[in-house]
Amino acid sequence: LESAKSESLSAFGDTNVILERYLVDPRHIEVQVMIDTHGNGVYLHERDCSLQRRHQKIIEEAPASDLPDAIRKDLGAKAVMAAKAVDYENAGTVEFLLDTQSKDGEFFFCEMNTRLQVEHPITEMITKQDLVEWQLRIAAGQELPIKNQKDIPCIGHAFEARIYAENPAKNFMPQTGHVWYHNPPAQPNAGGTNVDVRVDTAIKTEQDITVHYDPMISKLIVHSADRPSALKKLISSLKQYQLAGVPSNIPFLVKCAEHPTFATLGAVNTGFLEHHAQDVKIDTHEETGSGQDRNLLESVASSALLLLLENRKGVEGTLFGAVEAGMKKSGSPWSNLSGSWRMGGENGRFCRTLILLDEEEEQTFTCLSNRDGSFDIIHQDMSISIDGFMDDDGKMSMMVNGTQHMSFQIASKEDKSDGTISVVGWATTDGGHDGANYTFNTTFRHPYPSSSLSTSGEAAAAGAAAGSRVKAPMPGKIVRLNVEKGDEVGVNDVLIVLEAMKMEHIISAPSAGQVVELKCSVGDIVDDGCILAVVQDLDVASEDVGDAA
């Protein structure tokens, strides 16, 4: 204490020291207040925002669960008192920390936000009041629509989940990219308080997520009669949220919402992620499962790609019927079904090899076409029989090994620039893989590559052999270059500084050597995985110089 006083006196000319109680794993409770210009003030109940990552809210709920009525009323009354004490008018949020170690339920003032919060929709859902309308009425000099605190309704329970363009498997790195498919579980931006699922978002299919804004791209709000049913609706809505083109935190949100602690009334506090980090951790293959489960989903993805390749979207029946119908639909390369089944029994079946591009290594799937239109998918000595039909809207129903019915919504995108086809699937509510791994996100090598694509692949391979490639760890903007081409660097020397989502990230040399290529400039906007520089071993670099001479 004396040391703190001395330092304070030296820096500020003041020896006063403020001591605050350290709270272990408190609950973060905030209260929505409304104050008009006529002296009326009410609170529209409270929200529990305890589930946080790096002090940023992830999932909020209203009202707070397992909160004694006396504490609930005391929080609300003190929130209004705090706002009136500073002559505040209009909408505000007073935030408190509730001591979970205290038997008396002590709580402490944290801060006041003089605005509506991101999570205000859950208050609208339980009160059936339009808070923006209240704001406008107050600004126009009108009295509060409801002036008596006892008349503020509290109906049911609501949750909000914040959906971010970030990669949980890569330490939640912010992501940018092209959203080529976006189909949320409710009509976007319909608003309203008399709905059970609501989506507030600014993105649409074929829009880009850029580095210039916060990575939050959507808010999913659900409401039901009580907390258990609202939580069930939150989980199912998250699993039905269909987004492709950029990684998102949806799998992470599902794990949090499905955790037993989250289901327990009043059990979530600000230490939730610290205590349950391993339980909710997302790995690289989370969207496609692990072991046999992953193999099943990747086989389903392979069969979906085969139906697309054979132009059998919207075509039912045996393979020969599908051939005739599919050939009539278009003259594109996708419709080349000729020879998918050949005379000669099992050995005469048409065989196609699909290459799934994995971050660790390429995976090979051998696909055999059957006379009835089904496929046998063989991978790592495991064979799975899939008999499926995909309608014109991408809804795929299938029978796996003749016993397991599955149903997925399929979206796909052909990228001619890098010779790949992405196939994404989400389990639908009328049947399917509705466990933890409810979706798959796969990218295959295009089965019909052009010569230009082959050339680019060879060039990439040559570049890899030439030295250590320095890649962008995330999408962002180049703000500083610390080296020039030809400079010698040591391992972990800072080469480039990348700015992404309001933060600077240092990119270091992976090895000692010479910078033989510098593929970016200050101000460039780069994608995740983009090659920024090549560092070559000094001996190799000197040999290249000698050869050139």
Describe this structure in words.
It is a single chain. By secondary structure, the chain is of the alpha+beta class. 24% of the residues lie in helices and 33% in strands. The chain contains twelve helices and 30 strands. The strands form seven sheets. Strands 5-4-1-2-3-6-13-11 form an eight-stranded antiparallel sheet, sandwiched between helices. An eight-stranded antiparallel sheet has the order 15-16-17-18-19-20-21-22, covered by helices on one side. It has a four-stranded antiparallel sheet with strand order 23-30-28-25. A hairpin with a 5-residue loop joins strand 16 (363-369) and strand 17 (375-379). Helix 5 (227-240) packs antiparallel against helix 6 (250-258).
Summarize the structure.
The protein has 549 residues and is α+β, with helices and mostly antiparallel strands. The chain has 12 helices and 30 strands.
Q: Which range does the strand content fall in?
A: 25-35%
N-to-C terminal Cα separation, in Å?
70 Å
Biggest sheet layout: 8 strands, antiparallel
* Helicity, as a percent range: 10-25%
Shape verdict: globular
Given helix and strand content, the structural type is: alpha+beta
Mean pLDDT: 86
Number of helices: 12
Number of strands: 30
Spatial order of the strands forming the largest sheet: 5-4-1-2-3-6-13-11
Uncertain ranges: 318-345, 450-466
Radius of gyration: 29 Å
